[in-house]
Amino acid sequence: MKTIIRREFLDHVQSLQFIVLFALSVVLFAASGFVYVRAQAERDVYYRTQMTRAERHPSTMGARLVRRPNPLGFMAAGGDQDRPSGYDIQGGELTPIPVNPRTFKLPAVPALDWSFLIRVLFSLYVILLGYDAVSGEKERGTLRLILANPLGRVKLLVGKYCSIMAAASVPFAAGVLVSLIIVSAFLPGGLAAADLGRVLFVFFLVLAYFSLFAFLSLLFSSLIARSSLVLLALLAVWVCFAVVIPSSSIVIAEKLSAAPSETQSARMFEPMVQKEVWTKIGGVQERVNRGEFRTEDEIHRETDRIFEEGQAKVTEFYANYARAENERGRKAKAMSRISPAALFQYAAEDIAGTGDAGEENFLSQCREYSRAVDGFILRKLGKVVRVSRWSFSTNMEFQGKPIVVRSPQLLNYTGDMSDYPKFEERRPGFGEALKSAFGDLAGLLVWNILLAGLAFSAFLRTDVR
Q1: DSSP string, 117-166
Q2: Taking the domains of the chain in order of start, what are their residue ranges?
């Protein structure tokens, strides 16, 4: 079997496609490293500026919490470039910091990270390595000659599998090495010793992803006699795994979801505000006209109550919309996990600490910090004023004199701020990341076992004539 592995491996590495991929891998991984370094440097400056400002000027009027730049974003960005960089906290309300707008007429450009290169470039390369592993030998008439020797079919297929894995791993390892050198050289101190364990684990995760495409190629090559048809069938499956299933799952989740769309929610918002705020404020004006209030303070107390209840309704409205969006996203991710490409992507994001899991971890810490700030305000001022991203105000007439009523304003404390809560973002440990990625890792393992069994079963029944 060693002879088979050596012969097949040398055939692969001496081919033009290997040379092209090796060069392409080095170039793309280098480009990925430089793009990440540049973006990370900008994020570091923004993060330090915002956190320094927050520490020097603490205020009960609000706080801005910025997410710490992830040192492993070059492995799997997880869409973090399109997520809010942090949240503004005001009166218990978390408001995302606006992200830079993009042109929606153009398709979203994926991040040039490791996961993208592996899902698109290397999975396709593994297919090109293995599509003619069996069918090509049959077409050339060499498969019968090889099996005429004292070599079992199982050993032959194992040898071909090992050579495919080795030939795919060499350019990948070279690209990874170049990327790590660039990141380490231009961002000194960016990678900690603990991060190297995650990098190593992602390397084995990539091998598992390569493996299932190697088994898939061997399966089709054993079932279909003509190599050209094998390649067409494999490309169709690759498109389904890498493009069709992940994209269609989003559309299907939106169709199956009972939650209102963004447009529908926008249309529902104004009637809700009219009912919960302005209709009740109109009722106060009618009571004023009937002479039920004796002083302006009584009017302000009543309108403050209505505005506070309205703010609570607005906050609840946006919270319900966010929950519906998250539920829709969870359904889409669950359906997309039919594809091994999605399983690999989500597992890589969990290990890197990016994606939905990383965002939810940061958001939960922001909520925890918001409660700590509320406790500080309650101790210092005796009251926590609740606000939303909307404020309300209007004019009334009391005893022939115009007065302005508005939703309650945040309270500004100017005393001792030495015990104001400090925000320290906690990054999930490696064990927590593994626990989060366990389901996707198990899915990749199941795909490997299934395709390996089918590939060996098909090859054992292959007619070598």
Answers
A1: HIIIIIHHHHHHHHTTTTHHHHHHTHHHHHHHSS--HHHHHHHHHHHHHH
A2: 2-258+334-369+420-460
